[in-house]
Amino acid sequence: MKKETPICDSCSNENCFIKKHLYLEQMQQYIEKKNSFVCKKSQQFIIEGAPTQGLYFVYKGKVKTVKTGIYGREQIVRLTTNGDVVGFRGFATSKRCLISASALEDTILCNFSNEDMLDILKNVPEFTFDLMLFYAEELNKSENNIRKIAQMNVRERVIDTLLYIHRKFGQSKGVIELDLSRRDIADFAGTTEEQVIRVISSLKKEILIKTVGKKIGLLNVEKMRSEIIEHK
């Protein structure tokens, strides 16, 4: 990845919490103290169980957030891209990271320390209010995901995962703009790699999707949505 220096004032990520609040004079002192760095593909920048290091914001790239379950089985709990926040699970409530996070491609990240983030929350009420709404929405999503995993069959969970990835990252040249292995899809859908391979093969035969190497392209989004509409 070409070396870039993220500058908040010229950042194009309008969905970023920091960018949204740049108009506030109090924010300038914190912007000057942020740390930015490049995380190489597959490199971890948050390690589950390690001390928390504040919040991370994706300037450019893609990230997966993972939680370890019983028997060491990993569950992908979130996929993030430009402007998204990473590391909010357990922030300010735990001294240890409750998740791990790694780059799905070379990614530029901005990091604000625990101390600076707590200062922002105490001194910038507009930011605190927006973050509270964000947590409420994430809680709602988590509850919906638990319900879907309990009620959907394997095929429906794989379809739901593919639709989510398509919605989050979009398609270019007919395929989703994300390199995810079949194991990654299984970890996100709460199933096994073998079951994902079988469902993908079935969806291909039905001309609902296509594959180009590891990449997947959705050919009939509406029909796929109709299969899981009762769960929405």
Automatic annotation (TrEMBL):
Q: Which residues form the signal peptide?
A: none
GO CC entries: cytosol
The record places domain HTH crp-type at 152-222
Cite the entry's keywords alphabetically.
Answer: DNA-binding, Transcription, Transcription regulation
Q: Which domain of life is it from?
A: Bacteria
Q: Which Gene3D superfamilies match?
A: Jelly Rolls, Winged helix-like DNA-binding domain superfamily/Winged helix DNA-binding domain
Name all Cyclic nucleotide-binding domain ranges: 18-87
Record InterPro entries: cNMP-bd_dom, cNMP-bd_dom_sf, Env_Response_Regulators, HTH_CRP, RmlC-like_jellyroll, WH-like_DNA-bd_sf, WH_DNA-bd_sf
Recorded GO molecular functions are: DNA binding; DNA-binding transcription factor activity
What is the name of this protein?
A: Crp/Fnr family transcriptional regulator
**Provenance organism:** Flavobacterium franklandianum
